[in-house]
Task: inverse folding
């Protein structure tokens, strides 16, 4: 009986890992869209710099400073593009080892990836984190956690876009609050979008449940719950007067003070 239980638990874990990777692959289209958006401006700058350098090569041939300005511009833009590829590759790479990590740093990494989409959609992002929350560490799979955060940010963004299509233009805003509360780390993601529909609320975290129609795959919230619960945490979503609020509660690791590294202050 114990052998059958162990086998069933192993099979269930394998299925969850496959679903996590499936959800990640489903996000690839949006990821490539974000990457293309991030590359558009540096590519334009690089092409313009190359054109100017080509047209003025004779004029600048006797001016080292002039040549260095344009070559430095090209190097800077190309370095930025290479870094964005590295960031996306790191995000898409599956985690194989459960380890301590800082949720604040992971949150900043997700904002770095998804920020251009929010800017394009004209949605303001406000991040507040207290000193203890910035240095807190939890135990789990960092890339999976980042995937859950990316999905939740995407949902909040989509809700704001949907609200605009129904109610007209308004200032969209997503507020991220990270706080240390006793032995727990609490992350709240609030938006002023359309909120949860009554039809989806009873099935909110069920597999393949979605209120986005053909645009949704029903994997995001389900896998976000699986990821958070694998970290011994809890996730809830509730409507608020304007939009919806996601709350994630995670247990904080009891680390020696000397090993708790301070994350950069936003």
Result:
């Amino acid at each position: 009986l114990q052998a059958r239980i162990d086998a069933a638990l192993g099979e269930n874990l394998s299925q969850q890992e496959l679903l996590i990777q499936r959800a990640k692959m489903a996000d690839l289209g949006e990821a490539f869209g974000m990457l293309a958006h991030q590359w558009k401006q540096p590519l334009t700058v690089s092409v313009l710099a190359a054109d100017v350098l080509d047209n003025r090569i004779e004029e600048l041939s006797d001016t080292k400073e002039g040549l260095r300005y344009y070559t430095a511009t090209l190097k800077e833009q190309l370095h930025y593009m290479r870094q964005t590829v590295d960031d996306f590759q790191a995000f898409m790479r599956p985690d194989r080892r459960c380890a301590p990590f800082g949720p604040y740093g992971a949150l900043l990494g997700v904002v770095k990836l998804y920020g251009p989409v929010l800017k394009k959609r004209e949605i303001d992002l406000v991040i507040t984190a207290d000193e203890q929350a910035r240095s807190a560490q939890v135990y789990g799979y960092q890339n999976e956690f980042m995937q859950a955060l990316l999905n939740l940010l995407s949902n909040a963004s989509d809700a704001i876009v949907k609200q605009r299509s129904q109610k007209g233009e308004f200032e969209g805003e997503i507020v991220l609050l990270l706080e240390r509360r006793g032995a727990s780390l609490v992350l709240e993601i609030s938006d002023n979008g359309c909120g949860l529909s009554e039809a989806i609320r009873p099935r909110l975290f069920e597999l393949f449940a979605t209120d986005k129609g053909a645009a949704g795959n029903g994997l995001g919230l389900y896998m976000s719950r699986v990821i958070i619960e694998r970290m011994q945490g809890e996730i809830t979503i509730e409507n608020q007067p304007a939009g919806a609020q996601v709350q994630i509660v995670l247990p904080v690791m009891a680390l020696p003070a000397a090993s708790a590294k301070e994350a950069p202050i936003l």
Observations:
- The radius of gyration is 22 Å.
